[in-house]
Amino acid sequence: MKRAIRIGQGEGLVLTANRLLDGNIVWRDESGIWRPSIAHAAVLTPDHYESALDSALATAQKDAVVGVYEVVVRPGRPPQPVSVRERIRAFGPTVHPQFATELEA
Amino acid sequence: MNAPVGHYLYNAADRGFLGERIAEFEGQVRRRLEGSLSEEEFKPLRLMNGLYLQLHAYMLRVAIPYGVLDSRQLRKLAHVARRYDRGYGHFTTRQNIQFNWIRLEDTPAILRELADVDMHAIQTSGNCIRNVTSDQFAGAAADELMDPRVHAEILRQWSTLHPEFTFLPRKFKIAISGSPQDRVAARFHDIGILARPSEAGPVFRIFVGGGLGRTPLVGQEMFDSVPEERLLMTLEAILRVYNAYGRRDNIYKARIKILVQALGIDGYRAEVEQELARMNPDHYRLSPETVEAIRARFAAPDLSAPEGASDALARDRRDNPDFARWVRSNTHPHFAPGRIVVTVSVKPAGEIPGDASADQMDALADIADRYSFGEIRVTHLQNLVLAHVAQDRLLALWQELQAIDLGDANHELIGDIVACPGLDYCALANARSIPIAQKLSARFADSTLQEKIGPLRINISGCINACGHHHVGHIGLLGVDKRGEEFFQITLGGRADDLARTGAILGAALPEDDMVDAIARIVDRYLSIRETGEGFLDTLTRLGDAPFKEAAYETV
Amino acid sequence: MKRFDLSSPPRSGHDGIAVVPVDEMEESTRAVRLTPETDVEAIGPALAALDVVVVTFPVFRDGRGFTQARALREYYGFTGEIRAEGHILPDQARFLHLCGVDCVMLPEGSDPTPWQEALTLFSGSYQDRLGLR
Ligand code: SF4
């Protein structure tokens, strides 16, 4: 699924998905492993993310993840998604602070 | 076991069916994990078992047929919330409950637990006939012509795993009411049914093609008086035309309302009549014996009340103004002398509309056992109802509700906000609905002020799918996305009753931060310009939206 | 393609028979393939001469074939074979059967086990219990 995405100056991309078994959000790290925290996500440059996305899609069934796609972020520790939606996915629902995602997990 | 008050009592065949359905779902999960079912194939199958993949996890939507629960079922929901979720559940605008933090691998076990109390998640999602909704005051309201629940149960059974209508162009929602006061928004359903008695038995008025979403349309009358025997036959004919001709090329044009619009109600009716002429009525006949057999599985509660119950209530109201205010806003007349219908507000000021904790559910189950024959109903405004309370015990009930934070006097007032889950939970959302609802209800928490403002319905949807029914809110808010940031569009003047209409857009969308103040300014303006006795909609009709527009955009 | 029978005993097979699209029907045609758009009415008069009607599913979510099969059986009393082709899931086997379909054509080498299981999973239907049909 290639989509038209808008990437601003200095922004990068991370790959995300949901785990098939429990539905939890995961982020792809440098070695292609899906991790529960965006803090471990590999930040890709706009020129390089497509091959990473293709390989993530190709192994999705084996890796037991669904809905693989890319998210625009401002690099940092942890990377900050540009959209509200992805910030909520990365850090947890704003209305239940007790369910905030543990970034160092 | 005695039949539960208010809903159908399962028999061995019903229980057997649930077991078979769970076995089927287990097999589907297994095939998905093995890879013989792709995600594309699995998705519609899990949806038809109520399982969505949402923003943070799977969400399981459990069916509450026609909105009626018994206390043992509510306790089971509390148990599911504790054991498999994060200790709470969310009552939806379609009288169901959903859990936001479910694991796929736990789902068969959850479904088995639910089946232990005759519950399921069948057809709470997917392009099939969804769980049927009905009047939350059914079998209790003084204004009712006919209790619609027996026929609602018949519709549930008829639509369950219907061989022909499980892969429709799009979802299909049916509501049925037996009161001239339309409390089910019949004209905003794919099919809305108004039942009434006649000398020849029950007859049904049928509206088709209503709905909210991207193209809000008010349903039109297709038939005025369908006899009971022909009820299912007529529904089959309507659905058959839809299944054959409804659009499948564009998800936004796939609902039956678009087909009704394209053919015209008369054109659609002609198609339906052509089907009916070719169908064999004997094959589709809903016989009186079948209806009676189902009716017999509903208990008839003893609704007598102690002598002097009404006098006791009158005294309690006189002595306690806060209680009296709650009685004014949160009760409805019962047809039985000495009884009263109670709406339990699940909208405490500053909290998430429709969320209930497992502890609250357990406490409510106990309260229902003691005050209302163990029966609880869910309303499409995300509240709960205790339908048969003896008037002399109303004060005690209110005190118990207050103790669990469910005693707010705000039903149908500004604090009774309907909000969809929005961007905090929903994968389709543009904006967060819940925080605005929380801030607004906190701002207008004062119940004296709420009563002064009078009936005012605020509905919030996080996207154009309109699960928060913003089109029919007196004030509606719709979340829109502007480059990844949250904005809201305001509509005014919607209503879902007999004068059903959708609200009109007030102007350009405002950023999320400005929303609460903008709504507060609209309400303040209304208070300053209304004439004596005028409700919000009256003032809006008299003066148009100009004064409200001015107020809303004052600082922009 | 491999034939999987939904009805037992199976209807007599017409495996070798030539199937043509609706707009290529001739007087000698014995088997015709509908698309989901086909109005069954269009072939109504010709049905008496047909042995096989094929309903097709371009994708399993497109349920028009269910209504076509029922119209064939109920409105026209078609007693020949109704066959389903295309993207169909085992989970739909029972629905197809209840709508009057006799068999489905599966890709060569596909495993019939989930299809067999799907047919025996449920002991009855709510529509039956309500006395419909
Ligand atoms: S209205 Fe939109 S955001 Fe709200 S629950 Fe429905 S789909 Fe989700």
From TrEMBL, chain A:
This is DUF2849 domain-containing protein. InterPro entries: DUF2849 (IPR021270). It comes from the Bacteria. Pfam families: DUF2849 (PF11011). It comes from Swaminathania salitolerans.
Automatic annotation (TrEMBL), chain B:
Residues 58-116, 353-403 form the Nitrite/Sulfite reductase ferredoxin-like domain. It holds the Pfam family NIR_SIR_ferr. Keywords: 4Fe-4S, Heme, Iron, Iron-sulfur, Metal-binding, Oxidoreductase. GO terms for molecular function: 4 iron, 4 sulfur cluster binding; heme binding; metal ion binding; oxidoreductase activity. InterPro entries: NIR_SIR_4Fe-4S, NiRdtase/SiRdtase_haem-b_fer, Nit/Sulf_reduc_fer-like_dom_sf, NO2/SO3_Rdtase_4Fe4S_dom, NO2/SO3_Rdtase_4Fe4S_sf. The keyword Iron applies. The keyword Iron applies. Residues 125-277, 416-551 form the Nitrite/sulphite reductase 4Fe-4S domain. This is Sulfite reductase. It comes from Swaminathania salitolerans.
TrEMBL record, chain C:
Pfam families: DUF934. It comes from Swaminathania salitolerans. This is Oxidoreductase. InterPro entries: UCP030820.
